[in-house]
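Protocol step 4 of 6: structure prediction from sequence.
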Amino acid sequence: MTGYTRDPTQVGFFAPMRFEADIGDCEVIGRIPSDLNGAFVRVGGEWLYPPKFPDDAVLNMDGYVSSFRFRNGGVSFKGRWIKTHRYLQQVAAQKQLYGYYRNPFTDDESVRDPKRPNLRTVSNTAPIAHGGKLFTLKEDGLPHQIDPSTLDTIGPYDFNGAWKSETFTAHPKIDPVSGEMVAFGYEATGLATDDVFIYTMDKTGKVTREVRIKQPYVSVIHDMALTQKHILLPFGGYVTSMDRLKAGKVHWGWDSTKPSMIGVLPRDGDAKDIRWFKGPERCMMHTFNAHTDGNKIILHAPFYDSNFFPFFPPIDGSPWDRTKARAFVRRITLDLKSKSDQWKEEILFPFPVGDLGRVDTRFMTLANRYGYTGYADATKPFDTKRAGNAAGRVTNCYGRFDFTSGKLDTYFAGDTHSLQECCFIPRGKNAEEGDGYLIGVASNYAEMRSELVIADAQRLAEGDIARVILPFRLSSQVHGIWVDSSEVAFT
């Protein structure tokens, strides 16, 4: 392509894929469960053109959506670029036009527009299906509606004008009891602003409620948690300012002196009702689930000890500390009757895990027993001769973490593989919690290809039920979801 120069750091398995794909009938090892009727939809990033700055955040990559569509015991694959405003501008120019992550002051003059930073979104973080529609999400802009069958980009979506925030979280939560979706946008009124807008949509996608609050300090609120009675907004450590952005820096820096915080808002409350709890230094990215138990809220989350992202460096000039970038399965208890603003925290398993935690979404907002996430088990074999020198950087296992008993059940991907985020699919709408399938993409470094693995969530140690073999490497996934055929209209 005219104007394209390969980034020398993007080589081997991690070289850009840079193509769209269709496979009508995928190769399968094993047997696809016949009761799977829907799609595993993935969203991630891929550099359409190399980054303008070599130290830019990988979170700035252009959005890519892909889908494994299951029906009648077979599976097809489709992959498409997410055609955001930013993507279309770059295609027209045939070069990279955008600078540092979430800093429009570093963009090419032809597209620089600090007053409309949401036009820079790459929509590369997560998918969500709600109200019969499929969306891709990133927290710096509006959702992008996607055709669930073709994966064509329909365009940005503002809920028929009712969504007033300039931004929309990558992690809204859907209440399985009411069908409502609760979502928020931080930096809701522009760059480095402390405004957070929180919305409730009914099961059809109509906005029914808006609450506007102020954040104690401007920081990443990446994920949230929802109970039947409360909305939880966790954040900590990352800071920004307009001065920082005008100085040409990446959007976030890490301030270890800032407390981690969890905002608790009653679902029927107003801004005056929010309560902020404080805790020790934590990087609070993703949650498993939460529920309200009397006067207490129980939150399970794989939070990090400290700054996870080396491309968001400490503001005091110290080097990024890899030894503190460790996530653990934590139980956090917030006592609403206590006069203290502190929470109680327990580490449930004594080893680090990946922080991309999942649960059976039928139990979101309710008390639940199991959480699922990937982790690295150094006792498992890795074949460096066939797979290269990635041994210390692989996620070779999925775990089913029993929050009640402390038991761990493990799926091992293989001695040349590394796993991306998993997703749980219930065996049926009335199945017990945990009765279903664990699904996720494995990178096969030896064969230079990607494989979708499917395992029985109650028999993880037995390995695969099936593997879907792709003849190429997939772009990196951030998050994926299972979209049942009852949720959207597939053709």
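Step 5 (inspection) to follow. The chain has a mean pLDDT of 96.
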